[in-house]
Amino acid sequence: MKWLVTGAGGMLGHDTVAELRARGERVTGLDHAALDITSPSSVDRALAAHHPDVVVNCAAYTAVDDAEKNEERALRVNGDGPRLLARACAAHEARLIHVSTDYVFAGDARTPYSEDDPPGPRTAYGRTKLAGERGVLAELPAASTIVRIAWLYGAHGRSFVRTMIELEASRATVDVVDDQHGQPTWTADVATTIADLGPRVGADATGVLHATNSGEATWYDLAREVFRLLGADPGRVHPVTSEAFPRPAPRPAYTVLAHRRRQELGLARARDWRTALHEALPRIRKETLRETP
C-alpha cells in the first residue's frame, strides 16, 4: 500500500509516518508548506503525484482559543480542507482516514460518548471539526473513516504532558484543573490504530471510530501521574477549578469516549492511559531536555 500523510510536521503526523515506515509501508509525509489542504489545486497535485491508496489527514487548525475569534479561518482548515481531500480521494480512487476530536461533543454527559451519540459542539474549534467530519462523510461515505482523538500528547510537539515536565523542574508547586474529565492519549498509540485501520477502510471500517486511550482522568490526575513517573512528589500538584484558568473557548467538562466500534472491528483493545504514559514519558522527557536551552 502507498500512504500519504498530511500535516506530517505535527505531533500525530510525525508519529504516523514513523509507524508506517516501521512497518515497511511506502509512505509520503507532507507538512503544510508542501501541501495546503485548503487549496484544491495543491490537493489535486499531491494526489496525482503520489498516487496513494490511503490518505491520512492529520492537518488541522488546533488553536482552540484563537478559533473563537478566527472561526472562518479555522473553518477553512478544519471544515473545507477535509471536504476537498475527500473529494480528491474520490477522484483519484484513494481511501481517507480523517482525524477529528472529542470537542464535537457538548461535554455534558455522565457516561462515555459512543460513536453514534449526537454531537453538539460548544466551541468554534468543535464546530469547525464537526464540519470536517460531515464533509468527509458526504464526499466519500464508502471509503473513509473518521478517527476521533482527545487530550493528545507526544514527543514531537507541545502538549500538557511536556508542560508538566517543564514545570516540575522549575516550580515548587503547580495548580491544575480537576473538574474536566477526558482521556490522555499518546500519539504513538493513535498512529498504531491508524496503521491497523488503513487496509480496512472502504471494506468494514467506515464511519466513525474513537481512538483514544482507555480509562479517564482529570488534568489534575494526569499531572500527578507525570510527577510520580518523574520521581517527584505528586503532592506538589494542587487541584483547582476551571474558573482559575478562564479561557476564550470553554473546555468541555466530560468528553470520555467509548470504544464500541473498535471492539466491533476486532482491533486491539485500547490500553489504559496510565500504561501508555508510563511508556511514553521517558521519550517525551528526553526530547524535552534535548530542546531545552
Core attributes:
alpha/beta; 16% strand; 293 residues; six-stranded parallel β-sheet; two-stranded parallel ribbon; Rossmann fold; 40% helix; globular
Summarize the structure.
About 40% of the residues lie in helices and about 15% in strands. The protein is an alpha/beta fold.
Annotate the secondary structure layout.
Elements lengths: L1 E5 L4 H12 L3 E5 L9 H11 L3 E4 L13 H22 L2 E7 L22 H16 L4 E6 L2 E2 L6 H11 L3 E4 L3 E2 L2 E2 H11 L9 E4 L6 E2 H11 L7 E4 L19 H5 L8 H19 L2
Parallel strand pairs: 1-2, 1-3, 3-4, 4-5, 5-10, 6-9, 7-12
Antiparallel strand pairs: 8-11
Helix pairs in contact: 1-6, 2-3, 3-4, 5-7, 5-9
- With strands numbered from the N-terminus, the spatial order across the biggest sheet is 2-1-3-4-5-10
Low-confidence stretches: none
Give the CATH class.
Alpha Beta
By DSSP, the count of extended strands is: 12
